[in-house]
């Protein structure tokens, strides 16, 4: 038997999970559905990784619309995209107003891009590992339900 919450292997007669403490439903139909969902999530891992490439955030929503993991990664990548676009707009406006400090603004803008790139890599690695970890700083923002 497998825990529906954490995926840990358990004894057949277990009532609670050793790993996360969740109450177990010993219904074979529910176990089969959970196993099918987990297999689907493993099969769509590449799509979840690709969703972090900017405008491709919608891929999990199209490829596997019923997947909770897919919706999670689509939300994370959408938040990352909005953060990137919004940040670039703000930096452009500030740079236009403070054009005398263009060297400093260029440096800050480059650091901003590097930080976003790091968040993108973190999201991709999490998606590849099959984890649903929120991105640092911006990961708790929920746009897609």
Q: Percentage of helical residues?
A: 55-70%
Q: Mind telling me the C-alpha Rg? A: 20 Å
Q: What is the number of independent domains?
A: 2
Our estimate of the beta-strand percent is under 5%
DSSP, total strands: 0
SS field, number of helical segments: 5
The N- to C-terminal Cα distance equals: 29 Å
Class from helix and strand fractions: mainly alpha
Q: How would you portray this structure in words?
A:
It is a multi-pass membrane protein. This is Zinc-ribbon domain-containing protein. The chain is mainly alpha-helical and 145 residues long. 59% of the residues lie in helices and 0% in strands. It is elongated, with a radius of gyration of 20 Å. The protein has helices spanning 28-43, 45-50, 59-63, 68-97, 102-129. It folds into 2 domains: 1-43, no CATH class; 44-129, no CATH class. The model has no long low-confidence stretch (mean pLDDT 88). α4 (68-97) runs antiparallel to α5 (102-129).
Observed structural traits:
transmembrane; 145 residues; 2 domains; Zinc-ribbon domain-containing protein; mainly alpha; elongated
Briefly summarize what is shown:
By secondary structure, the chain is mainly α. It contains five helices and no strands.
